[in-house]
Amino acid sequence: MIKKVFKIILLVWPIVLLLGMCCLSYYQRQQIDRKLLKADGVIWKTGEKQFVVRVHQRKDGEKLYILIKVVGPENKEIYKTNETIDRDMFGGGFVRAVQADKDPEKEIAVWQPRNSYYLDFSDGSVEKLPFDRVPQQVKDLAENWHRYNVMAGITTVILFLFVLCYYILYIIVKGILRLFKRKKLLLPN
């Protein structure tokens, strides 16, 4: 009985580990997405005037091209910028709405490992500010986004290869043990 339980544990633990890693990554991504909000459609107000943030993304291979526009009353464009996020070699990035300062309006964070900033709205104008001015909590969110959206995929692939190698090794060891058992049974006493 104990031998059977031990065999089952030997067979199941790698799959449980892999599934646990996938579930943890999924859960963490969901938690991060609750705090880093969608930037397209964010509305900024000053007095009676409304300004809308428009974010358009286009993928081309490993590159993500992003156009950010802020449109004011009568569809007048007051701010426009283009960004290119290179997702090759553990890169990546995002454009999201986040609370980065003390005013009630959300800011637009443009984050990537090498070049990050945020857009702040004040009195009808948009200012581009360095990302190092955001609170530590927002910096941690950005790092966690990278960890669970970019690096977790790589970790999962490595873990999958480990599980595959484990089962191959398990089959080889089991086969060798069976051969020794057979030879032992065939040998006269």
Task: Tell me what the structure shows.
By secondary structure, the chain is an alpha+beta fold. The protein has a five-stranded antiparallel beta sheet. Strands 2-3-4-5 form a four-stranded antiparallel beta sheet, with no helix packed on it. The chain is 45% helix and 31% strand. Helix 1 runs antiparallel to helix 2. The mean pLDDT is 87. The chain has helices at residues 2-35, 136-186; strands spanning 37-38, 43-46, 49-60, 63-71, 77-86, 94-98, 107-111, 117-122, 125-130.
Secondary-structure map with pairings?
Layout: H1 2-35, E1 37-38, E2 43-46, E3 49-60, E4 63-71, E5 77-86, E6 94-98, E7 107-111, E8 117-122, E9 125-130, H2 136-186
Helix pairs in contact: 1-2
Features:
5-stranded antiparallel β-sheet, single chain, alpha+beta, 2 helices, 189 residues
